[in-house]
Amino acid sequence: MTTKNPLLEKPEQANQAIVVAGVNSCFPEHVDFFSQSYDIDSDLHPWDISEKLASLIQQQSQYNQIISNAMRATGALTQMDIDGLTKLIETQNLTLGRIESKLDKVDGRLGEVEQRLSKIEGHMPSLATQSQVSSVKSDLQTEMNKGLSPLQNDVTSIKTEISHHATKSWVYVTLAVASAGALAAIGSIFTIINSLPKH
């Protein structure tokens, strides 16, 4: 009679355990980031988040190999299990590719918003009257909406994409939290509007 591998009976827990063990043993320099993945620095700018995510995406293939090697090492996997694992890894990589593409678009739109803000803020020293301030605030709100409306749609789409795969790797959970952090950080830009001088 074949002995069942207890890890395979609860694949989500097994995957967590394997990823944690793999990261600790092979990538100790990333342990702190994983342990703090639920508490992203509030000072992290939206345009810095894409760089952090790109780094995680680059590491994904290495983590996939760790998971594969660790599960093979249990000695209780059949060829069917191994084929299924390979398919899972391929699916993860395709999903990461789609997420990376969407993040590129988010990055581009953030750049556009930043340029618009800089252009409008450049005119601020010459403002003197209430009507001029109101006009600039209105322009700023319009420009922000132009940039942020599609940006929020992209971030929501990324979070939805990730949620379908969140139980398969801590990397996805980290990406989801980072995306939520990006949306929150982007929203904080609106405080610029309210902080403009009032005469």
Task: From the structure above, extract its key features.
77% helix, mainly alpha, rod-shaped, 199 residues, single chain
Structure write-up:
This protein has one domain (11-26, 44-195). It is 77% helix and 0% strand. The chain has helices at residues 6-9, 11-26, 31-35, 46-73, 79-121, 130-163, 170-187, 191-195. Mean pLDDT is 56; it is low at 1-47 and 166-176. Keywords: Membrane, Transmembrane, Transmembrane helix. The chain crosses the membrane at residues 170-193.
Write the layout of secondary structure elements.
Layout: H1 6-9, H2 11-26, H3 31-35, H4 46-73, H5 79-121, H6 130-163, H7 170-187, H8 191-195
Helix pairs in contact: 2-4, 4-5, 4-7, 5-6, 6-7
Keywords: Membrane, Transmembrane, Transmembrane helix
Transmembrane segments: 170-193
Tell me about the largest β-sheet: none
Figure out the total of helices.
Answer: 8
Strand composition percent: under 5%
Q: Judging from the principal axes of the Cα atoms, what is the shape?
A: rod-shaped
Q: How many strands in all?
A: 0
Number of domains: 1
Distance between the termini: 83 Å
Structural class: mainly alpha
Poorly predicted runs of 5 or more residues: 1-47, 166-176
Keywords: Membrane, Transmembrane, Transmembrane helix
